[in-house]
Amino acid sequence: MIRPATAVDAPGIGDIRNTAIRDTTVSLISGYARTAGSHALIGVVAGENTAGLAVHTALGFVPRGTLPAVGRKCGRWLDAVFMQKQL
To answer: What pTM does this model have?
Structure first.
């Protein structure tokens, strides 16, 4: 049986300055996903967002692949970095 991954839309999770709140939020999301039978969490971060990539890494996410130039912001093309956290 293949266990699903859970994609959670949590925009700005990297902008939360209070690490206790951020860590608690991700812990709650992880617990919910685990209870729902998910095997992993998937995060997608803009490649130029070094702070977001660092936060996801600190939270246990691992980069799994990059899709080059798939999003636009302010007239520029951005890469999408897919990150995964095993539950």
So the answer is: 0.78
Q: SS3 of 36, please?
A: coil
Where in the chain does DSSP place strands (E)?
5-7, 40-46, 62-73, 76-86
Encoded tokens for 68: 């080059």
pLDDT at 62: 97
Cα gap 45→31, rounded to integer Å = 22
Gap between the Cα atoms of 7 and 71, Å rounded: 18
Give the integer Cα–Cα distance in Å for 27 and 78.
Answer: 29
Question: Could you report the per-residue pLDDT of 50-61, keeping only the tens digit for each?
Answer: 988 998 898 899
Distance of CA 59 to CAs 37, 39, 54, Å?
A: 20, 16, 9
Beta-carbon contacts of 80 under 8 Å, excluding residues fewer than 6 positions away, are 44, 45, 46, 47, 66, 67, 70, 71
Cβ atoms of 83 and 64 within 8 Å: the answer is yes
